[in-house]
Each structure stands twice: as structure tokens, then as C-alpha cells.
Design a protein that fits this description.
It is a single chain. α2 (12-42) runs antiparallel to α3 (48-73) and α7 (183-196) packs across α8 (231-249). The protein folds into 3 domains: 2-95, Helix Hairpins, CATH 1.10.287; 113-162, SH3 type barrels (Roll), CATH 2.30.30; 168-249, 2-Layer Sandwich (Alpha-Beta Plaits). The chain has helices at 2-10, 12-42, 48-73, 78-95, 97-112, 152-157, 183-196, 231-249, and strands at residues 120-123, 126-133, 137-142, 147-151, 160-162, 168-177, 207-213, 218-227. The strands form 2 sheets. It has a 5-stranded antiparallel sheet with strand order 4-3-2-1-5. It has a 3-stranded antiparallel sheet with strand order 6-8-7, with helices on one face. Helices cover 52% and strands 20% of the residues. It starts with a helix and ends in an 18-residue tail after the last helix. By secondary structure, it is an alpha+beta fold. The chain is elongated, with a radius of gyration of 33 Å. The relative contact order is 0.08.
């Protein structure tokens, strides 16, 4: 029994197993070191969420290389393993073309950095705060507290508007006043309302545009700037204050009207 144990320990098989075990342990160590190095390298240019994704990707790639080397030490042919992996990847690719497309699109999104965690973005009719940016999809929380998952492929093919990318935002208010009103008076009232609103920025200055002559009103656009975190509060308060100021000054905001003439046909 002792002789058989000694022969087994002296055999090449146990040596290969020890080498494979050492390679696996080294793989875990090197993968951890590489992932931490990636974290330090990308810490200045990428968000924490992107850094975590890069760390995971590097960790598993390094570990896969050491795992393949360990299998080779145990007698498995690397060419056979690569061939089997190729066949498996082709089969999986045909079975999950959408997932592969989302994965590739996710890599482009991470590299492009059009938006980050916490940004408010608009895709089609959906607007919400970015909760996560993953390799397959982006998760949003809408203003009415709904959870929305958008595939990365959809984001790549669609127009994405980042509402909070810059520190300030402009609010464009479209309105119409009656033809009898004086444009200079309307301009003065709107400017005074903006000056008194604490959420309205002094710079850039508010913009008053006489857009044109409508069917029932003189069309006007009044634009003011606010910090992005105050945008919704400004939009609400400014419109309310303008309505009160117009009422106090007797400024009419007309509604569409049609004049119908009836003709009585004589016999």
C-alpha cells in the first residue's frame, strides 16, 4: 500500500495536478492585482460604475487565461478547447443575436460616456434618471417612480437627450397675447417677473422673442436660464407668476376663435 502511494506521488499525474493548482492560485492573485490596477488607471476619466465593469471584465479575462493553462497542464489540448469554445460561441451567437448586439452596444456606450449615473436622459417618450449602465441594458427611474429597462441596442439606434449634462438649462415659454396688447408692455412685465424670481439666473440674460402673428394672438417666446437642479421649480413658479402679472396688468391671453358668416339664400 505504501509503495503504491509513493509510486502515485512520483507519477507525472500528481505533478501536473500540483502545477495546475499553482496556476489557478496564481491566476486568482494576478487577476486581483490586474483588476485593482485597472481601477487606479481609469479612476480619473471614468465613473465608479464604469470602473467596476472594467474591473470585472479584466478579472475574468485574466482568470480564464490561467484556467486554460491549468487545463493544459492536466493534459487537455488547448486547440481542442479553443475549437469547442468556437463552436459553442457560434451556437450561442445564433441563439442570442440580440444579446450579443446589446453587449457590443453596451461597450460603445461605456466608451462614449454620453451619460452617467444620476443623469436625467430622454429616449423617445421615456424620461428618467439613470440608475445603472450595464453591458446589456440601461436602467432608468422615471419621475413617477417607474423602473424602465432599455436595451443598449435601442439606445445606440435612438436619439438620446441628456437633460442634466450641463450645469444650467434654458426654459422656453411659448405664449400668445391679444392683438390689442402693446408688445413693449408685455416685454417689460415678463422681464420684471424674471428679475424677481430667485431661481432665474441673471447671466445668461432672459430672451424675449416676438415670434410672429398667429391666427388669434401675437406669438411670443420668453426664455430664461436656471441651474439644472432648479429647472422644474423655475418652470412651475415662473408660469404662475406670469399669469398673476398678466391678470394684474389686464393682459389678455386669447384662445383660438373663428368667425362664421351665415348667408341666407333667396328663393
Amino acid at each position: 500500500m505504501t509503495e503504491q502511494l509513493i509510486q502515485w506521488l512520483q507519477s507525472e499525474q500528481i505533478g501536473s495536478m500540483i502545477k495546475a493548482g499553482v496556476l489557478l492560485l496564481a491566476g486568482f492573485l494576478v487577476a486581483g492585482i490586474a483588476s485593482r490596477a485597472v481601477s487606479r488607471f481609469f479612476s480619473k476619466n471614468f465613473s465608479q460604475h464604469h470602473i467596476v465593469l472594467f474591473k470585472r471584465l479584466v478579472y475574468w479575462l485574466v482568470l480564464a487565461l490561467f484556467f486554460a493553462s491549468a487545463l493544459q497542464q492536466l493534459g487537455f489540448s488547448l486547440s481542442v478547447l479553443l475549437g469547442a469554445a468556437g463552436v459553442l460561441s457560434v451556437a450561442i451567437g445564433f441563439a442570442s443575436q440580440t444579446s450579443a448586439s446589446n453587449l457590443i452596444s453596451g461597450l460603445f456606450l461605456i466608451g462614449e460616456q454620453s451619460f452617467r449615473l444620476g443623469d436625467t436622459i430622454k429616449i423617445g417618450n421615456t424620461t428618467g434618471e439613470v440608475l445603472s449602465i450595464d453591458l446589456l441594458s440601461v436602467k432608468l427611474r422615471t419621475f413617477d417612480n417607474l423602473f424602465v429597462r432599455i436595451p443598449n441596442e435601442t439606445l445606440i439606434k435612438s436619439e438620446v437627450t441628456n437633460l442634466t449634462r450641463f450645469p444650467i438649462r434654458r426654459f422656453d415659454l411659448q405664449m400668445g397675447v391679444a392683438y390689442k396688447e402693446q408688445i413693449s408692455l408685455v416685454r417689460r412685465i415678463l422681464t420684471e417677473v424674471a428679475d424677481k424670481n430667485p431661481l432665474c439666473l441673471d447671466e445668461p440674460k432672459p430672451i424675449f422673442l416676438f415670434v410672429g402673428f398667429g391666427d388669434s394672438a401675437l406669438n411670443i417666446q420668453f426664455s430664461v436660464w436656471a441651474k439644472r437642479e432648479n429647472f422644474r421649480d423655475l418652470r412651475n413658479s415662473l408660469q404662475e407668476e406670469i399669469k398673476i402679472a398678466f391678470d394684474n396688468a389686464g393682459i389678455d391671453i386669447p384662445f383660438p376663435q373663428r368667425t362664421v358668416y351665415l348667408h341666407q339664400q333667396k328663393n
